[in-house]
Design a protein that fits this description.
Family: Belongs to the Nudix hydrolase family.
CATH architecture: Alpha-Beta Complex
Oligomer: single chain
CATH topology: Nucleoside Triphosphate Pyrophosphohydrolase
Protein name: 8-oxo-dGTP diphosphatase
Number of strands: 7
GO molecular function, one term: metal ion binding
Organism: Streptomyces antibioticus
Helix content: 10-25%
Pfam families: NUDIX (PF00293)
Largest sheet: 7 strands, mixed
Order of helices and strands: EEEEHEEEH
Amino acid sequence: MTERIVVVGAALLDGGRLLAARRSAPPDLAGRWELPGGKVEPGERPEAALVRELREELGVDAEPVERIPGEWPLRDAYVLHVWTARLRPGSAAPAPLEDHDELRWLAPAEIWDVPWLDQDVPAVRETLTRLTAGRAH
């Protein structure tokens, strides 16, 4: 059996809103929206990878809050795990530094205004449930 490579995604929440990031690469994903994140490196804890990826992709200092139940298959041996996360006090505002050309903070009523990548939809749906239940901070 092929070992699965975990990709971490961040449902970055602030003031009851979710951060969406529009892909600029690769070409087949460009223009679609996703939860920011990336691959877990060998020997790295998923939560540490999430913090690192958010720093690299968005220039923010964030902390994971809670793992969203479930995992979603990506291409080949990759699987997506998603955590809710929040900006740490004093963090810079998110900026699209790598692989993205636009960011948007979406209120619950706006979540489906952007074309999400198919694999992110179940995690976004779970995050929306948490947002509307008032469990996310």
